[in-house]
Design brief:
With about 180 residues, this protein is mainly alpha-helical. The chain has two domains: about 25-90, Serine Threonine Protein Phosphatase 5, Tetratricopeptide repeat (Alpha Horseshoe), CATH 1.25.40; about 95-175, Serine Threonine Protein Phosphatase 5, Tetratricopeptide repeat, CATH 1.25.40. The protein contains ten helices and no strands. Helix 6 (about 95-105) runs antiparallel to helix 7 (about 110-125) and helix 8 runs antiparallel to helix 9 (about 145-155). It is elongated and about 50 Å long.
């Protein structure tokens, strides 16, 4: 009987320690946060990304993930901060430039967004999504020729396989 109680206490302690987060790595918190985000628990995901950052303050991926979660909640100020921090930690993080640019468009900072999209393309010249959003923003700014050139480039890089892309291309550029 005492042995069974001792085993239950040990099992109970290990569950409690796991639930409290002892010994978890930043990567484990990231995985938990990603899983929560996929199920729509964005606030829970942010909590896990906070823990990942605490476990590894130099993780550009953790700041990027939390930035995505903040963007989903439309907390663009915090998202911008996190994407900026991800870029500081990893200056060749093209996706962080893309997401920060997207946040800037939501803050009506199209010129700042274009700079970020330019940088993403500089880092990753075949980044179809960066051409797509830059083209879309150019068109919204009244620069249809530049915008349609970027949209066409995005199509050449593979986005033409998506119906939604083709619809935007047709609507904006008449193709």
């Amino acid at each position: 009987m005492r042995a069974a109680i001792a085993i239950l206490l040990i099992i109970g302690m290990s569950v409690s320690y796991a639930e409290m987060g002892f010994g978890q790595t930043a990567q484990q918190y990231m995985e938990q946060g990603d899983a929560k985000a996929e199920t729509g628990d964005i606030n829970g995901a942010i909590e896990d990304f906070n823990k990942a950052i605490k476990a590894d303050p130099k993780s550009a991926d953790a700041y990027y993930a939390r930035g995505n979660a903040y963007a989903i909640t439309q907390n663009f100020k915090e998202a911008d901060k996190d994407f900026t921090k991800a870029i500081e930690l990893n200056p060749s993080f093209a996706q962080a430039y893309l997401k920060r640019g997207a946040v800037k468009t939501n803050e009506n900072n199209n010129k700042g967004a274009i700079k970020d999209f330019d940088k993403a393309i500089e880092i990753q010249p075949s980044y179809a999504q960066a051409f797509y959003v830059r083209g879309y923003v150019y068109i919204e700014m009244g620069q249809k020729k530049k915008g349609c050139e970027d949209l066409n480039k995005a199509g050449e890089l593979g986005l033409s396989q998506h119906a939604q892309f083709n619809q935007v291309l047709n609507e904006k550029c008449g193709k």
